[in-house]
Amino acid sequence: MLPTLPQAHLPLLEQATAARGNALLLTGAEYGGQRALALAVFAALNCTGQRGMGGEACGVCPSCRGLAAGAHPDLLELSPRETTGTGRAARRRIIPVGAVVQSRDDRREYDTHVLEFLEVRPTYARRAVLIRGAEFLGPEAANALLKLIEEPPHGARFLLLAADVRAVIPTIVSRSTRLSVPPLSDAAMHEELARRSGPDDLDPDELVALAAGRPEVLDHAAEVGTALGQAAGFHMALREGMLPTLDAAAELESHWTPWHAEALRSVWRAEPAPARAGLDTALAALERALEAYANPALSFMVFGLAARAALGVDRA
Ligand SMILES: [Zn+2]
């Protein structure tokens, strides 16, 4: 399903579609609406129907319908892969050169590389490459991409998303039109939530608090709702005793997603600052342990005990 472009970002769509150059770099927090904006720009480039007042695509022409169905022939979307070195090396996210052009040590991690994709004529107006996590482009991949940005086959466009522009290779930044996508106000987030059909059993205030102005979080309401429920269960168990804590920690382990870390931080924002600081430290240690492939069962146990210590309940 396509992420919904927030009403508050419509003026950005106008700016983005008017931008000159072959590459657009959209920056802002992950889930902040950059992908929705990039897809709206792409939809507008290829729309053959009647476009809206703000330049939005019609939503009903063959190109728009293909995009909504998740099968548009002119769009290639790339994300970083998690690589692991040898042994217990930490996970590292990277977009390797093999994603952009055929490379010598190509392990065909990417089904289609960018050059191959762009050599084919567009089915509609323009082919586009959407790169999530442009800060994870390796130097070789960035160089190969630069050549394509300078002379894109068939007038292709590049839509680059990054959380932190300072982490993007400067030569890429300098050849892109930059737009920063600001967080939405809580009021705007509630309006966006009302436009979507989400799970009924979810407290809208809790969801909006966790989302912190990032509209694409609302597109994951069901997963976030589950994570919030499990985080609240774990938080309650901390005060019930050691055994309930270890049970709840094991339960967290078996369902763990990145949303759970956000849900935990959101659930314990009601705790006094010193306790919250201790809980945050315990969670950061858990995340580091998981990244370094430590034993998950043990890491969650340690996390549960550290969280009880942070609340000062283990000394009772
Ligand atoms: Zn259309």
TrEMBL record:
Gene3D superfamilies: P-loop containing nucleotide triphosphate hydrolases (3.40.50.300). Pfam families: DNA_pol3_delta2 (PF13177). One of its GO terms (biological process) is DNA-templated DNA replication. InterPro entries: DNA_Rep/Repair_Clamp_Loader, P-loop_NTPase. SUPFAM superfamilies: P-loop containing nucleoside triphosphate hydrolases. It comes from the Bacteria. PANTHER family: DNA POLYMERASE III SUBUNIT DELTA, REPLICATION FACTOR C / DNA POLYMERASE III GAMMA-TAU SUBUNIT. This is DNA polymerase III. It comes from Deinococcus radiophilus. The lineage of its organism: Bacteria, Thermotogati, Deinococcota, Deinococci, Deinococcales.
